[in-house]
Design the sequence.
């Protein structure tokens, strides 16, 4: 069997932590899949940055449903990174988010990131993020300004090959 | 190279149809599960049907929030078994609904959250797509997953479902 879906790295937090980093990401895959199983003690917005870029090169467009109303929001020219709404993070249950990075190592294009995130107690969401850089994504930083992701939260990065 | 995305089992519905697509004795050796389904039911006089997703034969302790698009957008929530939309008898012939369920940490001792994306397509009006955040408030490891029609209809022939195990080992 040809393996086309390979784990690159995984982190399971042993204690609350406000930043999760994946570095030295090889450019040898076609796409990346980033899976979160996460919880935090207090609600706080989360962001994701690439290659240590802290300039205003990120934008996010999201579609959300909270169980009674739908909404769409957009953040442009953000330096914090790709946006992840705090309502998508539960303080009582572990929830899931799935990010898809297509063509993450193509140096001719800016990078788009599709996501699906879930918190059955508050909100369901789908977003697209844009990083205006032609650099291959070689590192990913997930961070938030609150008390951090709870112990037991797991972040796993997979590589997918189209060969 | 480690294989991290492995087919556990598949179901293809035969000519007689079936009321339940079931995956039993799910191995506890993976990190996450992904169920991918292409389905249609024989629900009479309707273009779509809602499927129930049931874990370990337990029919309680479910909650969900949904983002639904069918020409316009809406959002709702519920406490029935989590919903998964598919095509039914009056939908365009040969059109099957598609969807996937992602279940992280299915062997863990915490409540189980999961993500469902599903669509019901139709070569006419009244097609739908829905995104669901689901929670089964039960700490048991998931050993069985059943798909059933919420209207007690049957899956028709050629409906398929594939269960994959994903490992981060």
Sequence:
């Amino acid at each position: 069997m040809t393996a086309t879906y390979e784990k690159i790295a995984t982190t399971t937090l042993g204690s609350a932590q406000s930043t999760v980093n994946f570095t030295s990401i090889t450019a040898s895959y076609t796409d990346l899949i980033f899976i979160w199983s996460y919880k935090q003690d207090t609600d706080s917005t989360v962001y994701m940055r690439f290659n240590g870029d802290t300039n205003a090169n990120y934008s996010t467009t999201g579609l959300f449903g909270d169980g009674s109303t739908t909404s769409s929001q957009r953040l442009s020219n953000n330096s914090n990174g790709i946006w992840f709404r705090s309502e998508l993070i539960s303080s009582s249950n572990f929830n899931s988010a799935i990010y898809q990075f297509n063509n993450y190592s193509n140096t001719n294009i800016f990078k788009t990131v599709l996501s699906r995130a879930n918190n059955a107690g508050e909100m369901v969401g789908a977003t697209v993020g844009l990083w205006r850089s032609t650099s291959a994504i070689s590192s990913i930083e997930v961070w938030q300004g609150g008390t951090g992701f709870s112990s037991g939260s797991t972040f796993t990065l997979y590589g997918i090959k189209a060969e | 190279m480690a294989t991290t995305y492995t087919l556990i089992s598949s179901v293809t519905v035969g000519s007689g149809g079936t009321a339940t697509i079931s995956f039993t004795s799910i191995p506890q050796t993976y990190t996450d599960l992904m169920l991918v389904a292409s389905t249609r039911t024989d629900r009479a006089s309707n273009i779509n049907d809602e499927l129930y997703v049931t874990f370990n034969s337990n029919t309680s302790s479910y909650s969900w929030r949904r983002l639904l698009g069918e020409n316009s957008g809406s959002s709702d929530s519920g406490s029935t078994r989590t919903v998964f939309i598919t095509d039914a008898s009056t939908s365009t012939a040969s059109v099957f609904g598609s969807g996937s369920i992602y279940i992280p940490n299915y062997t863990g001792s915490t409540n189980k959250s999961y993500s469902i994306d599903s669509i019901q397509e139709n070569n006419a009006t009244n097609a739908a797509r829905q995104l669901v955040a689901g929670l089964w408030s039960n700490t048991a490891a998931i050993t069985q997953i059943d798909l059933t029609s919420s209207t007690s209809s049957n899956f028709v022939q050629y409906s398929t479902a594939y269960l994959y195990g994903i490992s981060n080992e």
In short: The CA atoms of residues 43 and 153 of chain B lie 5 Å apart. The mean pLDDT of chain B is 94.
